[in-house]
Amino acid sequence: EALASNQSYEAFHEAGVYNIATGKLYATSNWASDFNNPINVTTIDLNNNDAIASVRYKNVQNANGGAAFYPPGTPANSSEGQQIVFCDEGQTDLSPSQLTLVDPSTNTTRILLNNYFGANFSSINDVVQHPLTGDLYFTDARYAYWQNFGPTPTLRPQVYRFSPTTGQVQAIADDFVAPNGIELSPDWKHLYVTDTGRNQRGNETRDYVNPANIYRFDIAADGGLENRHVFAYTSGGIPDGIHTDTMGNVYSGLNDGVYVWNPHGQMIGKIAVGGTEAVANFAF
97 near 150, Cβ under 8 Å? Predict the structure, then answer.
């Protein structure tokens, strides 16, 4: 069932975060190659006949991925205190890529992180919060630079861990071409990261030598990552957004639908989506 559509621009591209308090789903648009028309945040009000609205937030220039955020001490999946952390890809040298916290009930914002020891992030892409520690795991690719609205990168494409409580930030995984989607397993012991390097320039050109993989890591006792291995390789499409269910199955958007693997990396199904556009992201 189609909840909403927009024919004038690619309104529903990334994020896909449901906020319990507002009853709305928050999505971000694709870059439209127009500095005067930055990426929009679009809401779908599930409590009001799926009404659509565009929203602009202070300190959010070009949002991409996003995740539900709970302040320390707040139970996960509760409506109490739930906010949204957006991955802002930034714009040129004047607006750095950053993690911005948004309270959708008040539309107030707060910048959580906008540099790695003085170096600007290239293009923060996606983020997930660990329910126990509150740490944010996020990917930093180069899509803003590749799509000509970001400066020349000064950092490698990497995965980072950030503690909102202490302010500590660490680079915890590299050797990616374009780290993209990121998600935890339901027992919070593993981290999944997609690499969309096959589409590294952010256009329709494909380089089939580059990865289109889902990687799985074990989360170490100190919050770092270890035991990296290829969880799944997609020979045709490019795995972008990624989520897991309570059974440990892994879902990723690519090509003509949402593909599903069991916890052992065996593909067990596909949720087909009609139309000609590829699936970039989705939400439960």
Answer: yes
Separation between Cα atoms, residue 103 and residue 82, nearest integer Å: 8
Q: Could you tell me the two tokens for 231?
A: 């969880």
DSSP 59: T
Q: Which two tokens stand for residue 197?
A: 């390097």
pLDDT digits (tens, 9 = 90+) for 238-263: 999 999 999 999 999 987 889 999 99
Which domains are assigned to the chain? 70-272 (2.120.10.30)
In the chain, count of helices (H) and strands (E)?
1, 20
Q: At 144, is the secondary structure helix, strand, or coil?
A: helix
Q: Is 256 exposed, middle or buried (0-12, 13-18, 19+ CB in 10 A)?
A: middle
Strands 250-254 and 136-140 turn out to be unpaired
239, 212 Cβ separation under 8 angstroms: yes
CA 33 vs CA 71, 111, 199, 246: distances in Å = 35, 25, 17, 39
From CA 106, how far away is CA 205, in angstroms rounded? 41
What is the DSSP code string of 210-231? S--EEEEEEEPTTS-EEEEEEE
| pTM (2 d.p.) | 0.92
Are 114 and 96 spatial neighbours (Cβ–Cβ below 8 Å)? yes
- How is residue 162 written in tokens? 């950030």
Q: What is the residue whose two structure tokens read 């540099």?
A: 115
The pLDDT of residue 7 is above 60: no
Residue type, 208: Y
DSSP string, 165-198: TT--EEEEE---SSEEEEEE-TTSSEEEEEE-GG
Q: Strands of 242-244's sheet, edge to edge?
A: 242-244, 250-254, 257-261, 267-272
